[in-house]
């Protein structure tokens, strides 16, 4: 085995994160990896005799038995989804160490892993909320300093009508929109290195074109070169994560729909609205999977199941249906023998 066996767990964690950084994950994702790795390793160190800090905890100490005990402690106060994510992070960490010949094998298959529940869709509440949001943001707002409604509407429309994630929006270039009239599309650098192509309709294409025209007027023709970032701030600089999140929040406030946005799904609520409406309009799980860039069909199926449940609840609440219960005398209605 490699002489890196003599390195501390802390040093190997940082080496793993450096290797992961070449895949260009978001800073948020990298920090989540670090938190999961250090959290479990800290518990292992605390259980050692004597207790060891991470810079003195050796990788050889992480046997299957030790990892099971640490995960049992880690899982006690946490939700299954958090434990599942930590397990996956540690599995990737050990896979990296095996490939680097630091350890002979991966102990994680011997550590129990809870089944992570699929996240439930969190679309905007209210049947007409997306339309109200777009209409409100499109209007000039005299209270706004340096208002740019064309840009703001384009951001919302790309999330609502193409289902793009935050990171995907930020990665777009002017040339990401291409194709002839009637065959327009947006090329998306998807999550996990899975690129995809999303067809765009004429209305969305027109919204983006209006935004680019307004950008030429603001910053000149050179600002919309094909390799330029598609989304920029009011100074013409590439829009960044925090700026995009603030922009969407401000759009909700201006439209007065903040109370219709699910907690913890500010920009993602727009993507979920896109997917939910696809399901309502009869799209299959496979179609939703392709358009949203899901890694598994199960994630896409949740939109169809939730939509079907909502439709059944709406039928159940119909007053005529409730009247039938009285006619049937509370007995099930069905074929008689």
Automatic annotation (TrEMBL):
Xref: PANTHER family: INTEGRASE_RECOMBINASE PROTEIN MJ0367-RELATED, PHAGE INTEGRASE-RELATED
UniProt keyword list: DNA integration, DNA recombination, DNA-binding
Organism this protein belongs to: Micromonospora coerulea
Family: Belongs to the 'phage' integrase family.
Record's keyword annotation contains Chloroplast: no
Span of domain Tyr recombinase: 119-316
TM region(s), chain numbering: none
UniProt domain Core-binding (CB): residue ranges: 7-98
Pfam families: Phage_int_SAM_1 (PF02899), Phage_integrase (PF00589)
InterPro entries, per the entry: CB, DNA_brk_join_enz, Integrase-like_cat_sf, Integrase_catalytic, Integrase_recombinase_N, Integrase_SAM-like_N, Tyrosine_recombinase_XerCD
Protein name stated in the entry: Tyrosine-type recombinase/integrase
CDD domains found in the cross-reference section: DNA_BRE_C
């Amino acid at each position: 085995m490699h002489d890196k066996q003599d390195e501390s767990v802390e040093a190997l964690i940082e080496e793993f994160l450096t290797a992961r950084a070449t895949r260009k994950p978001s800073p948020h994702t990298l920090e989540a990896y670090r938190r999961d790795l250090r959290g479990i390793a800290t518990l292992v160190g605390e259980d050692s005799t004597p207790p060891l800090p991470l810079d003195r905890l050796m990788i050889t100490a992480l046997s299957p038995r030790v990892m099971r005990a640490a995960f049992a402690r880690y899982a006690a106060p946490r939700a299954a989804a958090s434990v599942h994510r930590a397990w996956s992070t540690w599995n990737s960490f050990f896979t990296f160490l095996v490939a680097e010949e630091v350890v002979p094998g991966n102990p994680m298959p011997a550590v129990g892993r809870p089944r992570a529940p699929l996240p439930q869709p969190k679309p905007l509440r209210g049947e007409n909320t997306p339309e109200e949001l777009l209409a409100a943001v499109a209007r000039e707002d005299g209270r706004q300093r340096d208002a740019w409604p064309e840009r703001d509407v384009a951001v919302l429309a790309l999330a609502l009508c193409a289902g793009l994630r935050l990171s995907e929006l930020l990665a777009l270039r002017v040339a990401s929109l291409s194709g002839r009239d009637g065959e327009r599309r947006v090329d998306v650098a998807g999550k996990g290195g899975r690129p995809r192509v999303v067809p765009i309709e004429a209305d969305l294409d027109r919204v983006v074109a209006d935004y680019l025209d307004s950008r030429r007027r603001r910053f000149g023709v050179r600002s919309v070169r094909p390799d330029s970032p598609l989304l920029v701030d009011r100074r013409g600089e590439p829009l960044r994560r925090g700026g995009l999140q603030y922009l969407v929040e401000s759009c909700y406030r201006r439209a007065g729909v903040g109370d219709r946005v699910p907690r913890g799904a500010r920009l993602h609520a727009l993507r979920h609205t896109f997917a939910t409406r696809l399901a309502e309009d009869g799209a299959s799980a496979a179609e939703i999977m392709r358009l949203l860039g899901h890694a598994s069909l199960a994630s896409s199926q949740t939109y169809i199941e939730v939509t079907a449940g909502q439709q059944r609840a709406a039928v159940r609440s119909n007053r005529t249906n409730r009247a039938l219960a009285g006619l049937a005398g509370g007995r099930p209605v069905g074929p008689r023998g």
